[in-house]
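Following up on my earlier thread - several people asked me to post the actual chain instead of describing it. Fair enough. Here it is, all 318 residues.
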Amino acid sequence: MRASGEPNPRRPIGDEICTIGIDLGGTKIAAGLVSFPSAKILARETIPTLPARGGEAVLNDTVGVARRLQNHAANLGVRVQGIGVGIAELVNLQGEITSDYLILWRKLPARETLSQIAPTRFESDARAPALAEALFGAGRSFKHFVYVTVGTGISYCLVVEGQPYAGANGHAIIVGSGVLTSECEKCGTVQDQVLEEFAAGPSLVARYNHRVATPVTSGQEVVAAAAAGDGIAEQILRSAGSALGNSVGFLINVLDPAAVIVGGGLGLAGGLYWESFVDSTRRHVWSAVSKTLPIVKAELGSEAGLIGAAAVVWKRGP
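Reply from S.P.:
Thanks for posting it. Predicted structure:
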């Protein structure tokens, strides 16, 4: 029998509920054991995603991370109530993955496999951090805000009264993937630009490496190069930030939020990219009332994704 002074492994610590949150993006798998309602991270682990290996390899790594966090919970004497996964794919209103752009799980029994550890729920990796910021971060002061995540990809989420808006099909996150078509009136040239292919992390790397002799491997390195006075990096960041601001300004014009909160690895990097983005956003806002709205970085930083994924289970159940 359990001695009276030993923790009950089937109960949370005090009134807290523990869940595992997994932020599954194109660059990294960031996961944590999170206790609610404090949103305290009791343990965390980050490993590379390496999605080119295929969905099964990524799933095996994700299961390994979840098992290690479950073991940590057991050592603390608490039971994991569920697993929330914020994934860089489209996720419908039923929590089903409906795309295969990056993390190839749609045809795999991913939820069933993870549910062998604890009941599992999927959510978009745009909505999960937006929920975290609404509950615990920079969004607490605003009834309506837009969360923009900029990293390997670019997505957004509208938050209304603390709840991420998913749309009719769960697809209300697309801002950087669709083609923006324009035609020059002078020469007739038609340009089809995809924002992610111009302003996201991998595109910054590709654009920079195309013009220099010493290649880089991350968007943050391009940001650092610009800060060090690299003219090529500066030009790329100005154009990328301007393009991002064009799209976010359009979102502000259409959605009329009280604030814009920006997360993701590149969104939090600061420097010339951030300055160009903010300036361009304000220039593309039509209403004078909205031109001065707050544009701030995610208060929870890089941990917003895993906290939000864990919060999805805490708020909605697995």
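Confidence is low (pLDDT under 50) at residues 1-12. That should answer part of your original question.
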